[in-house]
Amino acid sequence: MTGVSEEARTSRHRGGWRLGGLGSLSGLLAGCSALATAELVSVAVRPESSPVIAVGGAAIDRTPPAVKDWAIRQFGTDDKLVLQLGILAVLTLLALVLGALAARFWRIGSAGVLLFGVIGAFAATNRPDSTSLTDALPSVAGAVVGAGLLYYLVGRLRPRPAKALADADQASETSNASNTSKASKASKASKASKAETGWDRRGFIVAATAAAAASAGAALLGRSLNGAQGQNAIASRNQVRLPAPASPASPTPKGAALRVKDVSTFMTPHQDFYRVDTALVVPKVDATAWRLRIHGKGVTREKTLTFADLLRMPLIERNITLACVSNEVGGPYVGNARWIGVRLADLLTQCGVEPPSKGGPADQLVARSVDGMTIGSPVEDVMDGRDAMLALGMNGEPLPFAHGFPVRMVVPGLYGFVSACKWIQDIELTTFDDYDPYWVKRDWARRAPIKTQSRIDTPKPFARPKSGDTVMVAGVAWAQHRGIDKVEVRVDDGAWQQAELAAEDTRDTWRQWSFPWKAASGGGHTLTVRATDRTGETQTQKRTRTIPDGSSGWHSVVVTVD
Ligand SMILES: Nc1nc2c(c(=O)[nH]1)N[C@H]1C(S)=C(S)[C@@H](COP(=O)(O)O)O[C@H]1N2
Ligand SMILES: [Mo]
């Protein structure tokens, strides 16, 4: 082995790293340009057709319930952001690998990018809210641009002369195996360095820089145009004037809100109201173009209503506490708001619908949203006299977009996933035998009345009260449509002691409670709460998972007395 051939080998080795590294960079640029192009094209189609959104949506629909539950637990309402970042991280990794591969096998890289285009296009056109093949356009356009760019960039990395030089180098290496003259050393070194610079460095740098700049520009432009979309919807929301309700909410008793620090406020403001849905892009619906169709089994007078039609009907206003079935014991997915809307039972009666108890043929009402969500509620519950409504307003305003503008359903006493369809556009009367809505297809229950629950809001876990202090233990309890009659607190394994209940607003709202606890003995203490509803049933100790019909069990908080 001579010093010269060592040198040549090192330089070829370095060439391999260069090829791989620049290949990966090319892959990354191709990926960025593909996504940026897709984002820009999605402005012309619709924001939901962009591949990351479409693939993300498809992933949400296919995520096993246990994983979804875990994600909600880990990331809460940020779960969607985490999902999108996850998709981008996976794409980045694949782009790097694909680029490195493409540097050696020129065409494989571009074929790979095209394959991603096909996946994106397939996801976009198969979303439940996709009505047109044009949803494939962003993915296709992105893939073509990305593949083209990768092909071009990688082409700059592998110029012909480099190969010819390498061959020559190899030939001289064998013939000069025993010859280590100075001249041949010099000539080989110069050949090796020519091979190094033989690729089209200038072309690569120019193209890469241009691609990076163009991608950044297109992505920013696409993002901001997509963000500005829905101007009509925003304008239509600004124009809504909610009329005074024909049936106002009964005045909330003064004592419904306890004066205890750190208890959830009795009414939950918009910004604190939990949000749970599958929409990666919040639907922005133009109320002036919106229609609601009511049809199906036993509907003798089918109706298609406009938003203005609903505003002209007598409106009811009610305080109703909404809860999510994915809420863990002690969890945050429950909120209380003042809703205004049309009584659903009246509307159904106008359409000729009879509840099953009066011989009606439909026992399930399936609500469909503009984003393809389907939510099934028992017709009997909706028509049994409770204040089930098509809500148009929340806390004195038109519904926020995230909470279902222009119209959503609210049914007291049922978990949101079987009652509270946001962005509703269709109501079909059918049967539980004939149709399984979205969540039921994913192993959640067909019927899900809210379980009696209570939560300790204060003290927080691991609080350190002083020995001798009186600690206000307080929180909320809910059993919508049955009402809360009693809340009890237990310290460690002591006896259950009755907490003070705030005044009841209605049986459809939660109730605050408080219990002053004299923290005498030092060390760790477990505070536990349980509620009893008006049917006399006490909240069960039995812990269950959220799936299929809601978690159960007692909420405990451990504190340390100093
Ligand atoms: N269109 C649509 N409506 C939906 C959902 C959804 O994913 N899509 N989620 C439901 C669930 S599971 C709950 S708990 C409530 C939550 O309503 P909020 O986000 O206004 O609190 O909306 C319901 N309505
Ligand atoms: Mo939910």
Uncertain runs = 162-196
CATH class of the largest domain: Alpha Beta
Rg of Cα set: 32 Å
* Overall pLDDT level: 90
State the CATH architecture of the largest domain: Alpha-Beta Complex
Description:
The chain is an alpha+beta fold and 562 residues long. It folds into three domains: 2-158 and 199-229, no CATH class; 254-442, Oxidoreductase, molybdopterin-binding domain (Sulfite Oxidase, Chain A, domain 2, Alpha-Beta Complex); 453-561, Immunoglobulin-like, CATH 2.60.40.650. The protein has 13 helices and 18 strands. It has helices spanning 3-44, 51-62, 65-75, 79-104, 106-125, 137-157, 160-175, 182-197, 201-228, 231-239, 307-312, 344-350, 379-382, and strands at residues 291-296, 303-306, 316-323, 334-343, 364-369, 374-378, 389-394, 397-398, 408-410, 424-430, 453-458, 470-478, 484-491, 497-498, 500-501, 511-518, 523-533, 555-561. It has a five-stranded mixed sheet. A hairpin with a 2-residue loop joins strand 7 (389-394) and strand 8 (397-398). Helix 6 packs antiparallel against helix 9 and helix 7 (160-175) packs antiparallel against helix 8. The longest helix is centred in the first third of the chain and has 42 residues, at 3-44. The relative contact order is 0.10. The model is unreliable at 162-196 (pLDDT under 50). Bound molecules: ligand MTE and molybdenum atom.
